[in-house]
TrEMBL record:
Keywords: Acyltransferase, Cell shape, Cell wall biogenesis/degradation, Peptidoglycan synthesis, Transferase. GO terms for biological process: cell wall organization; peptidoglycan biosynthetic process; regulation of cell shape. Pfam families: FemAB. This is Aminoacyltransferase. One of its GO terms (molecular function) is aminoacyltransferase activity. It comes from Streptomyces adustus. InterPro entries: Acyl_CoA_acyltransferase, FEMABX, PG_Glycine_Bridge_Synth. Belongs to the FemABX family. The keyword Acyltransferase applies.
Length: 373
C-alpha cells in the first residue's frame, strides 16, 4: 500500500516539522513566502490509519507561456529516506504533482554521503594531486546514501547537474561546511577553532569590535555591505526587498527564526550576517563585509558570536552552508573555504538534487533553455 499525498494547511505543515529535531529552513511553510516568483504548496504524507508521516514544501515555477510547472522541493521532502520502499513514498507525490500540472519534479534528498574533517580538508588543499574535494579520502561515509541513489535510479530519477538558485536553475549546494555542537561544550567548540581563528577573535576583542544584534530597520546597513561583497566576490546580489521579505516571512512564523548581526568598530559597521534557526539546526545564511579595516578581524568576531548564540540556543549543528568543491588556488572561493575550515568543523557532501521528467519533451525543452542562459 502506498501513502496518500494531499495538500495540507500551513498549520499542519508547521506542526509536523516543529515536532522534528532538524528540518531544512527551505522546507518550512514560510519559505514559500520568501519566493514570490514561485507558487508554494504544502503537501502531507498520510498512512492507512490517517496519521501524517511526512511533509514537503513544493515550489511551482510556471514555464513561460504555458500553464505547466517545474515542481521543486529544496532539501526535501521530509520523509523516511531510510525506507527500503521509497517508491511507496515518492510515487504518490509524483502523481499528485503531475495532476497539479507539473512537467518535471526536482528534489534534494537530505541524505549525507561523506564527511571530511577540517584536517582532511586542509590536507586535500595542500595536496597538488587533489583538484576537487570529492577526490580526497573521506573521514567517514554513509552507506545509506548509495542505497538511496540506487533506489532513485531504479524509479527513473536522474541526478541533476549543479545549478544556481535563481529562476529555473533551481539548486542548492551539494557540499556544505558544518560545525557539530552535539555533546560539546562551548569550550570544546572554541578549542576546535584553529590557532589563527582564536588569535583573530582575541584581536577583534582587543581592538574594540562589538557584535550587536540588529533589527529589520538595520537591513539597509547590511545590504550596503552585501552589495560591496557581491562586487568583490563576483556574484549577482539579491535585491533589498528579498531580505525584507525574508525577515517578515520567517519571523512572522517564529519570532526568532531569523537574526541579524552587525560588527561595529569606531562608529562604523564593518560586517553583518544573517542567521536562521529551525529546531536544533542553525545556519549562517548571508554574510557581508567591507574591505576597510580588515585588520581588526570583524568577520571572525561575528562568526564566533553567532556560534556562541547558536550553542546557547541548544543547536546540535552550526551550518556555514555552501563551499566550493574545487581546491585549486585559481578558484576565488578557496579563501572562503579556508575561512570555514578554520572553525574546526567538517565538510559534508549531500546526495545532491534529482530530477524526474513527467513530460520528457517539456523537460528537455527546459534543459535546452537553461543551457542557453
Amino acid at each position: 500500500m502506498t501513502f496518500r499525498v494531499q495538500p495540507i494547511s500551513r498549520a499542519q505543515h508547521l506542526a509536523f516539522v516543529s515536532a522534528r529535531p532538524s528540518v531544512s529552513h527551505l522546507q518550512i511553510p514560510s519559505w514559500g513566502d520568501v519566493k514570490p516568483d514561485w507558487r508554494a504548496e504544502s503537501l502531507g504524507w498520510f498512512d492507512e490509519d490517517g496519521r501524517q508521516v511526512g511533509a514537503g514544501l513544493v515550489l511551482l515555477r510556471p514555464l513561460p507561456r504555458l500553464k505547466r510547472y517545474l515542481a521543486y522541493l529544496p532539501e526535501g521532502p521530509v520523509i523516511d529516506w531510510s525506507a527500503p520502499d521509497l517508491e511507496r513514498w515518492l510515487r504518490p507525490m509524483l502523481d499528485r504533482l503531475k495532476a497539479r500540472g507539473a512537467f518535471s519534479v526536482k528534489m534534494g534528498p537530505p541524505v549525507v554521503v561523506r564527511r571530511w574533517s577540517a584536517e582532511a580538508v586542509k590536507a586535500a588543499i595542500a595536496d597538488p594531486g587533489v583538484r576537487r574535494l570529492g577526490e580526497a579520502e573521506a573521514t567517514s561515509s554513509e552507506p545509506l546514501a548509495a542505497q538511496v541513489a540506487d533506489r532513485l535510479r531504479g524509479m527513473g530519477w536522474r541526478q541533476a547537474a549543479a545549478g544556481g538558485e535563481d529562476g529555473f536553475a533551481a539548486g542548492q549546494p551539494r557540499y556544505v561546511f558544518q560545525v557539530p555542537f552535539a555533546g560539546r561544550s562551548l569550550e570544546d567548540v572554541h578549542g576546535g577553532l584553529n590557532q589563527q581563528w582564536r588569535r583573530n577573535v582575541k584581536k577583534a576583542e582587543k581592538a574594540g569590535v562589538k557584535i550587536v544584534p540588529g533589527g529589520q530597520e538595520d537591513l539597509p546597513v547590511f545590504y550596503e555591505l552585501y552589495t560591496e561583497t557581491a562586487e568583490r566576490d563576483r556574484f549577482a546580489p539579491r535585491p533589498l526587498s528579498y531580505f525584507r521579505r525574508m525577515w517578515t516571512a520567517l519571523n512572522s512564523e517564529h519570532p526568532d527564526r531569523m537574526r541579524l548581526y552587525l560588527a561595529h568598530h569606531d562608529g562604523e559597521v564593518l560586517a553583518a550576517a544573517t542567521m536562521l534557526t529551525v529546531g536544533d539546526h542553525v545556519w549562517y545564511s548571508y554574510g557581508a563585509s567591507t574591505a576597510r579595516r580588515r585588520e581588526v578581524q570583524p568577520n571572525n568576531a561575528m562568526q564566533w558570536r553567532m556560534m556562541t548564540d547558536a550553542h546557547r540556543l541548544g543547536a546540535s549543528v552550526y551550518d556555514l552552508r555552501g563551499i566550493t568543491d574545487t581546491l585549486e588556488e585559481s578558484d576565488h572561493l578557496l579563501g572562503l573555504l579556508r575561512f570555514k575550515v578554520g572553525t574546526g568543523g567538517q565538510a559534508v557532501e549531500y546526495l545532491g538534487e534529482w530530477d524526474f521528467p513527467l513530460n520528457r519533451l517539456l523537460h528537455r525543452t527546459l534543459e535546452l533553455y537553461l543551457a542557453r542562459r
